[in-house]
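SEQUENCE, STRUCTURE TOKENS:
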Amino acid sequence: MSSYETRSAFKDSGRIVIVGASLAGLRAAEALRAEGFTGHLTLIGDEPYLPYDRPPLSKAVLTGWIPAEHTGLPRFETLADVEWQLGIAATGLDLSAKQVRLADGHSVSFDRLLIATGTRARPWPNPSEAELEGVFTLRGRDDAKLLQQCLAAHPRRVLIIGGGFTGSEIASVCCELGLPVTLVERGTAPLVGALGGVIAERVARLQRRHGVDLRCQITVTSLEGDAQGQLRRAHLSDGSTIDTEVAVVALGAIRNTEWLRDSGLAAGTFGVGCDAGCRVFDINAIVTDDVFVAGDIARFPHPLYNYQFLALEHWGNAVEQARVAAHNMVCVPADRSPHVAVPAFWSSQFGVNIKSVGVPSAAEEVMITQGGLDDASFVAAYGKEGQLVAAVTFNHAKWVEFYQRLIEQAAPFPLSFPVADHSTPNSPVPAAFPDPRVPNHEATVVLTGHDPNERRVQWIPRHRQT
């Protein structure tokens, strides 16, 4: 049978299982149908809901503009015959038997598998303190609904632990709702791990100007509750305390790879390793033919960054990578495509629209190419070893595509071109990112390099023949 005939037979009668029924899983399912796959398609998700959009959870849902129940993602009629197994988690993977094990004891067989299990919120490290009434994390729809109800009750003060994008967006919501808010960040400024110290200082000034009680280079050491189990106080590393009845733990995300333990796949702290075509590696770095990965959990090489492995927690990356993975699952090898899209994300906070393209944390230097740091709008360009690697805009989104093209062309850095709204000295300065050897839980883009938690090939030397 020819490769074309084999592919056609699989498209008609093959069985594909997608573990992870969120954005990446949904978009992959749509792409599979668009690619002509008419075989059996199963989506497995640990939440009881059909796929929904997560970005509004830390913005419009918390303000009360959109109910949490109204964040569902649109689904096309091509998915009418999909088998949904919702509210049940995958607990294991048997590669030899080609089966996904589920929490209810059942197994689901597959011919090809897409892993799209994403991330979950990193909990407060002390379990008993995390159980206090008034301590929240924000990742899913239920989290957002409970937190919105709590904020609507007008607590005396909200404490946010962690100044990444989620923590900063929640602080912005609190200010919009007129709630006193304290944000505690262990770094030098909010978003320092994502944008570097130079731009993060601008974010710090923005937050303080809007009334945030910002405490930097400080950590929360413990949370204290009353006899009824209600949060009452937080203790900080500088010896001070904050009286509060609401604390939001915004310490980043954990990739959901535990169910892949002992599966034989290259799954670790930074995600599931794969090639540029989304095919998963096994623990010996050998690519698999029938297992693919997409979304927040994927760890993949990118040519623009010297083929270092990237792990991204971005909406756009989940959509594009899901499309590439779906195409490669059903096409002949000669037609496979690489996932080479330039990372991009956005955030809305304190009246500012922040958009980023590329990987700022890969940079050594930053320069303001348009506007100025004290202006309402500006553009910051990031470079490393003479090459442009990223750009961040504040209320200047119309320029994102321009800088994206420059990044794709490996434009030289520093940049030198005339622009109409340039008002600051056009010279680079150190970007001031935290030491990369220190884990940064708030970063949404990680150049992972080698993951020390991954197992490696065990090399056994041959005995010399005598």
